Amino acid sequence: MFLATVTVTIKENVLDPQGQAVEGALHSLGFEEASNVRIGKYMELTIDSGDREEAHRKVVEMCEKLLSNPVIEDYQFELTAVQKGVAL
Amino acid sequence: MFLATVTVTIKENVLDPQGQAVEGALHSLGFEEASNVRIGKYMELTIDSGDREEAHRKVVEMCEKLLSNPVIEDYQFELTAVQKGVAL
User: Fold this and answer.
1) Subunit contact A42:B39, Cβ cutoff 8 A
2) In terms of CA atoms, which chain A residue is nearest residue B33?
3) Where are the alpha helices (H) located in A1-88, listed in sequence order?
4) B14-45 pLDDT, tens per residue?
5) pLDDT tens for residues B39-74?
6) Which residues of chain B neighbour A35 with C-beta distances below 8 Å?
7) Cβ–Cβ under 8 Å, residues A39 and B41
8) Residue of A nearest to B30 (CA)
9) C-alpha–C-alpha distance, residues B59 and A47, integer Å
10) What pLDDT digit, counting tens, does each position of A4-48 carry?
11) Of 3.10.25.10, 3.55.50.30, 3.30.1280.10, 3.40.50.1100, which CATH number belongs to A2-87?
12) Is the CB of A36 less than 8 angstroms away from the CB of B85?
């Protein structure tokens, strides 16, 4: 089994209105030092597979088909071997 | 300047309906090997500060006040020294 931690971010040249809203809210709260706020998604999932390469291939497929929108988003992920939820 | 990368996750004992929905969708697409899907947030922001300790303190404050809901969410972050958006 593998724990996959996936990060999905909006591509650099794509507008991020959610990030702009959070940046505005931070400034309103007095955090003037915050800028370039970009919001993405973070996902954790367990992959029931004994083979790292197969798990890797599956996660790529999940990211391309469902977890991200490849037109406007980038994704990256890490695989950690686990046994019943405990890192090896 | 520092680049802060913040990850906000739902606490382990809190239900994650969004994760359950994504897990159901993965299964519908034939990805039966996916389980324990949990969805969180990923944020990148630039902190205009020359002092790592001050930047760290500010990001903790931002996480506690706005970026996360400490009642049901955990957060962690990393700070990377940058110059005009380029890692040093």
Assistant:
1) yes
2) A48
3) 17-28, 52-62
4) 999 999 999 999 999 999 999 999 999 999 99
5) 999 999 999 999 999 999 999 999 999 999 999 999
6) 45-46, 48
7) yes
8) A62
9) 33
10) 999 999 999 999 999 999 999 999 999 999 999 999 999 999 999
11) 3.30.1280.10
12) yes
- Between positions 35 and 74 of B, the ones with CB within 8 A of A are 35-49, 55, 58, 61-62, 65-67
Tracing tokens 């996936």 back to the chain, one arrives at A6
3-class SS of residue A82: strand
| Predicted local confidence at residue B86, as pLDDT | 63
Nearest CA in chain A to B41: A41
Q: Is the pLDDT of residue B84 over 90?
A: no
Integer Cα distance of B17 and B65 in angstroms:
24
Q: Which residue's entry shows tokens 């490849």? A: A70
* Contact status, residue B2 vs residue B88, Cβ threshold 8 Å: no
CB-count exposure of residue B18 (10 Å: 0-12, 13-18, 19+): middle
Identify the three-state secondary structure at position A17.
helix
Distance from the Cα of A47 to chain B's closest Cα (Å) equals 5
Interface membership of B9 toward A (CB under 8 Å): yes
